[in-house]
Amino acid sequence: MEGVPDRRNLPPLRLHVPEPRFRPGDSVDFGDLAIPAAGTAPRPAADAAPDSFHDLAYTMVRVLDDNGQAVGPWDPRLTPDRLRAMLRAMALTRAFDERMFRAQRQGKTSFYMKCTGEEAVAVAAAFALQPDDMCFPSYRQQGLLIARDWDIVDMMNQIYSNRGDRLQGKQLPIMYSVREASFFSISGNLTTQYPQAVGWAMASAAKGDTRIAATWCGEGSTAEGDFHSACTFASVYRAPVIMNVVNNQWAISSFSGFAGAESTTFAARAIGYGIAGLRVDGNDALAVYAATEWAAERARTNQGPTLIEHFTYRAEGHSTSDDPSAYRSADERSEWPLGDPIARLKQHLIALGEWDDERHAAMDLELAEYVKAAARTAEKNGVLGHGMHQPMETLFEGVFEEIPWHLEEQRAQMLSEYDVAGRPGARK
Ligand SMILES: Cc1ncc(C[n+]2csc(CCOP(=O)(O)OP(=O)(O)O)c2C)c(N)n1
Ligand SMILES: [Mg+2]
Predict the structure, then answer these.
(1) Which of 83, 99, 180, 395 is the most exposed place for a label (fewest CB within 10 A)?
(2) How many whole angstroms from 221 Cα to the centroid of ligand 1?
(3) Which residue in 315, 332, 209, 309 sits closest to 259, CA to CA?
(4) Residue of the nearest CA to atom 12 in ligand 1?
């Protein structure tokens, strides 16, 4: 054809389809993973321009070294009491996860999601934020509520969708909503919390308030359009918000390569938007604390948003509906070079002479008993399969301020056809 160049010598075009490095049965070697030594990343002034520290999006802010010492400019210099409180909140989060996972296997709830190995990401951030800073989490930051001392019986009531459930069984288990703890309703629709957090932060600034927002999403969720529109708004209006990307390397069964991890870091997403970007060792509670504290100071002093990638590893299944042995090597967890966040903070406290194995074992025992007792209390309000826990008519409440006529009609019809226990047959 005229005008079309002769391309016979060109190679055929090829599509690149990412493939995870290790599949079930493969032996795992993370030896070539670039992990900078603790203490090597510089700490810019909180009012430094975002384009003056692009390197921080490619390295890793790390405080705890292999011997459990806190080193370098990011050491937040917390008191032993604060460190112990943080350790306890992380251990409680894990104990809570264990108990609720078991409750799901016992048929007491339909669904649960653990955050094993990622406890530092939520707990250390909660410690670095003010208690009334507004959090817009994903489903894997239960550690925020626990670190804010929210009643775990209340959390369990939601998981059991029982009589004590403040959400009246209208949300999937674990999708908490706690206004009193400045904890925004979790949504199952990935990344919707990002533009919501940015919008909330913009409103806080527009009103001349002093509270900032923080939000979390997984690395897989950065592929959502919502992530990118949130970054644009945050950058343009310099919204007082901290945007956390929890890179646990898996999005159910698809690995981080499908969200772009083969080409660059998730922290580097910040650079294109002119946002401050940090890449942090997510299994190092002190690094997470220091990065959050620094980002919060930027937000509070009108320096604008910060995007923090927390490099971590999802140690267990995506949820109780998942079986990771079907798609990844079982050795990944044990070979993961950044270790376990609880073990690392424990090691640090022991190195300081402020903790020991006996006290740790006693704490674990006490926390296991504590969550067991809480579960018993919550279970008195009902569990899955034990009939209706909320009056059926509440099904129609809480969405519209005034129930529209067509829903009112449906409610009346339902009440005429079902008894109070939800069985067919009109109420007496
Ligand atoms: C918009 C949307 N797409 C897909 C899903 C199904 N889904 C639920 S969780 C998930 C994986 C998310 O992975 P990631 O963002 O890495 O978070 P992680 O679970 O690892 O914490 C997917 C695909 C969903 N809930 N919402
Ligand atoms: Mg993930």
Answers:
(1) 180
(2) 6
(3) 309
(4) 251
For ligand 1, the distance from its centroid to the CA atom of residue 37, given in whole angstroms, is 32
Quote the domain boundaries for residue 403: 391-428
Q: Are strands 276-281 and 254-255 parallel, antiparallel or unpaired?
A: unpaired
Asked if pLDDT for residue 121 goes beyond 70, the answer is yes
Residue 199 alpha carbon to ligand 2 centre in Å: 24
Contact 236, 274 (CB under 8 A): no
Domains in the chain: how many in total?
2
Residues 319 and 426 reside in one and the same domain: no
Tens digit of pLDDT for each residue in 59-91?
Answer: 999 999 999 999 999 999 999 999 999 999 999
Residue 336 shares a structural domain with residue 418: no
All residues at 6 or more sequence positions from 41 whose CB lies less than 8 Å from its CB, including other chains: 56, 59, 60, 61, 62, 72, 73, 74
Same domain? For 303 and 421 the reply is no
Give per-residue pLDDT as tens, 12-51: 999 999 999 999 999 999 999 999 999 999 999 999 999 9
Collect all residues with Cβ–Cβ distance below 8 Å to 46 and sequence separation of at least 6: 294, 297, 298, 301, 303
Residues 328 and 398 in one domain: no
Is pLDDT larger for residue 415 or for residue 280?
A: 280
Of the bound ligands, which one is closest to the alpha carbon of residue 172?
1
Residue 120 sits in the same domain as residue 148? yes
Domain membership flag for residue 124: yes
Separation of 189 CA from ligand 2 center, angstroms?
Answer: 14
Q: What per-residue string of b and e applies to 369-401 under the rule 16 or more CB within 10 Å gives b?
A: eebeebbeebbebbbbeeeebbebeebbeeeee
Given ligand 1 and candidates 252, 266, 319, which is best to mutate, with the most ligand atoms within 8 Å of its CB? 252
The atom number, within ligand 1, closest to the CA of 118 reads 21
Ligand 1 atom 3: the closest Cα is on which residue?
A: 190
> Which residue, by CA, sits nearest to atom 13 of ligand 1?
251
427 and 350 inside one domain: no
| Whether residue 232 is found in the same domain as residue 285 | yes
